[in-house]
Amino acid sequence: MSTVRAVRAAITASRSTSSVIAFASRLTARASSTLAVDACWNCGDLSPTNPAASSLDFFCVACGMIQPPLVDGNHFKVLGVEERFAVDASELEDAMRRRQKVLHPDKFSSASETEREHSANQASAVNAAYGVLRDPLRRAKYILETRGWGVTERDGRETPVDPELLMEVMEAREDILEAKGDAKRLRELLSEHSATVEKCIQDTREVLDAKVFDGERAKDVVFRLTYFVKVMEEIKDLL
Amino acid sequence: MLRRTIADCARSARMNSTALAFSRAQTRAYDKKVVEHFDNPRNVGSFDKKDMNVGTGIVGAPACGDVMKLQIKIDEEGNIVDSCFKTFGCGSAIASSSVATEWIKGTHMDEAVTIKNQDIAKHLNLPPVKLHCSMLAEDAIRSAVADVKAKREASAQAKAA
């Protein structure tokens, strides 16, 4: 991520009185540890910046300047919310607002160009995180992905989807097609399948938030959720 | 024969792609062949999946929630006398399965399984993000053939026992 940033930091660091050796050893530590240690673009301070801890950490602890977003910022960490599937909508919304309160570009309208740029990037990272996490299906897929079980286009090919699930979905979609134009029947189907989706969400919560994570099982429940969310969308489109 | 058909299709697809490259780059999300199959899909329908001469392949793309069913009807020698499909998915998935049923009709089932997703994708000028739709069609053919073979084997064993 940070050749440019590191170089910039190196220049700043060597300009200041802080020892070059200390800088080098910290760089090595950074390469070998997973803790994100980034130098402040403004003052070169090398304090660990961890956006998970508090909103203050989006700013340099030494000079208070806004920092660019972490390249691989985890969505939960960006919002400062504990990583789990069973997070409620209001908790996410509060977290998003709390972040935007300090990061939004409106707060930086008279700041330098660099600060405005960092603020815009931070704010859009927060929006992106909120967009993914507020939607149960996208949140489930994201959690799978962060645990190395992301759903890809090759799924279904190397690991075939359970034919019984596919049969069930096929029948559901056929029923919807038949009900086209019949609003009453469509509404019946909608309530029937929203119950299915609710159940899928419950299962997803159980599996994703279990103490021992079972990737195969997690994938299965998320597949099922994906299919039935699609079924719901299909009905809504026709209503 | 099938190979030749595919080669012809591929050739015309190449010519088309040059002619279409410009307009597609501007606005076209789907190639006109995809649109054509989408508006006018061939062989939509269902066979009785319990029929001994019917093979059913049902496959899905969990990333997007698409589901595709492709069926074949075979004669004693294993020639595909008829084929149909039902796909709930995007235009490319529908077009891919529509093309697949057209191509495999009249071929032997062992020849049908040699159809590659690249052939379908090329024929329909599918963009890279839609390649998985043609993979779905290839997998559906294989799974339909595997299904009817398994059925026949099971009945042969039942007879022998």
From TrEMBL, chain A:
One GO MF term attached to the UniProt entry: ATPase activator activity
Kinase keyword on record: no
J domain mapped to chain residues: 74-148
GO cellular component terms listed in the entry, alphabetical order: mitochondrion
Biological process, per Gene Ontology: [2Fe-2S] cluster assembly; protein complex oligomerization
UniProt record similarity statement: Belongs to the HscB family.
Protein name in the entry: Co-chaperone Hsc20
Automatic annotation (TrEMBL), chain B:
Location of this chain's protein in the cell: Mitochondrion matrix
NCBIfam families cross-referenced by the UniProt entry: iscU
One of the GO BP terms on file: iron-sulfur cluster assembly
The NIF system FeS cluster assembly NifU N-terminal domain, residue ranges: 29-153
GO CC term (a single one): mitochondrial matrix
Official protein name in the record: Iron-sulfur cluster assembly protein
Cofactor dependence: [2Fe-2S] cluster
Keywords: 2Fe-2S, Iron, Iron-sulfur, Metal-binding, Mitochondrion, Transit peptide
Alphabetized GO MF terms: 2 iron, 2 sulfur cluster binding; iron ion binding
Phylogenetic classification of the source organism: Eukaryota, Viridiplantae, Chlorophyta, Mamiellophyceae, Mamiellales
Keyword Magnesium assigned: no
Cited function: Scaffold protein for the de novo synthesis of iron-sulfur (Fe-S) clusters within mitochondria, which is required for maturation of both mitochondrial and cytoplasmic [2Fe-2S] and [4Fe-4S] proteins.
Family assignment from sequence similarity: Belongs to the NifU family.
Major site of localization recorded for this protein: mitochondrion
